[in-house]
Specification:
binds pyridoxal-5'-phosphate; 8-stranded parallel sheet; alpha/beta
Length: 352
């Protein structure tokens, strides 16, 4: 580990990230699925470009600000799906400006959002593609039944300035089969109403490797697969060597044999547990528990004496990589030749 690196630092192993991108692309393409990675995990212009170079049809973003930041730095991004309901005049004005720069699609699960989009796009030169978001078991946004999906699809198709772009879901982990059943029914209902359903978009890294062609889903939006994390290891969806993002921290205190304190707390690791015990995996010392975080301190405990001393460094695989990305202005990227480059996190903090 580079001792000049100031800690805490977020380090990305580019070789591992590029291997993750290539593997997922090959797996999904073999199932006949288009790949549209969600950039929420890395928020980096250069990795978005790497995903497109590997064969992605475009990218997925959650926020308008993320799209704006990435388009400014990554000219190869030509196609974006914004998987978030957009509301409010100022955001709608930003959306219309974006639609002039890139092939843009977005989602809605209510007539209110559709009507607001329609009012904004009615005078635009090109219509906006709007997909109906379906709740297929994730219990977040989304229409609740296939018939509701078809009704909203018809509403979109009849709205000035919009075209019906298809169906979209973010399924619950382990919920692909339920998602396919819902989407198949919604597709049939929309077709019965005389509509064509050009895209059926699903996603999620937990089920990525089990995903098979089902004749319904046409594109897949994996996000976390690019870095992987401890939560995906716990689900059996990634091995430790597939985890490209690590938090490097320094032991700053060793008050008792069974307790050390590192210089990474919630401001880097975040408090996301994702159902796990402890706040990350200490590489090489899997029996240690990061059992308590305050803002700048992380406490590591063990029933046995801990083989770490003040000044030692540890590498941590966090529970949830995506939220860690958003905590730092720049990541330290270990290039394939071993050199370390500092990459600004292009879309960091773009929450609107
Ligand atoms: C709408 C949407 N699509 C795709 C993804 C990517 O999922 P994952 O990070 O599990 O690959 C997410 C993640 O939050 C999401 O919210």
């Amino acid at each position: 580990m580079d001792l000049e690196l100031e800690t805490p630092a977020v380090v990305i192993d580019l070789t591992v990230a590029l291997r993750n991108i290539a593997r997922a692309q090959a797996h999904l393409a073999a199932q006949g699925l288009a790949v549209r990675p969600h950039i929420k995990t890395h928020k980096l212009a250069r990795l978005a470009e790497a995903q497109i170079a590997a064969g992605a049809v475009g990218i997925t973003c959650q926020k308008i600000g993320e799209v704006e930041a990435l388009l400014d730095e990554a000219p190869s991004i030509a196609d974006v799906l914004l998987t978030y309901p957009v509301l409010g005049n100022s955001k709608l004005a930003r959306l219309t400006a974006l639609a002039r720069r890139v092939r843009l699609s977005t989602v809605a699960d209510s007539a209110a959002v559709v009507d607001a989009l329609s009012a904004a796009f009615a005078g635009e030169p090109e219509p906006l593609r709007v997909l109906v978001e379906c709740d297929t078991g994730g219990r977040r946004c989304g229409v609740q039944t296939p018939d509701e999906a078809a009704d909203l699809a018809r509403h979109i198709a009849g709205a000035p300035g919009l075209v019906f772009g298809g169906l979209m879901t973010y399924p619950a982990a382990g919920g692909q089969a339920a998602a396919t059943r819902f989407l198949a029914e919604a597709k049939r209902a929309a077709e019965r109403a005389g509509l064509t359903v050009p895209v059926v978009s699903s996603g999620g890294t937990p089920d990525l490797w089990q995903t098979r062609a089902d004749g319904v889903v046409t594109e897949y939006r994996p996000g976390t697969y690019v870095y992987n994390d401890r939560s995906l290891m716990a689900r059996g969806a990634a091995a430790e060597d597939d985890c490209a993002l690590r938090v490097v921290a320094t032991v700053v205190s060793n008050p008792t044999p069974g307790r050390v304190v590192i210089d990474a707390g919630t401001k880097v690791l975040t408090s996301d547990l994702l159902g796990l015990i402890g706040h990350g995996l200490v590489r090489g010392l899997p029996d240690l528990t990061i059992d308590q975080l305050s803002e700048e301190h992380g406490r590591l405990t063990s029933a046995d004496a801990i083989p770490l001393r003040v000044g030692d460094r540890v590498e941590i695989i966090p529970n949830h990589a995506c939220v860690v990305t958003n905590m730092v202005d720049a990541v330290h990227v270990r290039m394939p030749d071993g050199a370390i480059e500092l990459w600004p996190v292009t879309a960091r903090g773009r929450v609107t």
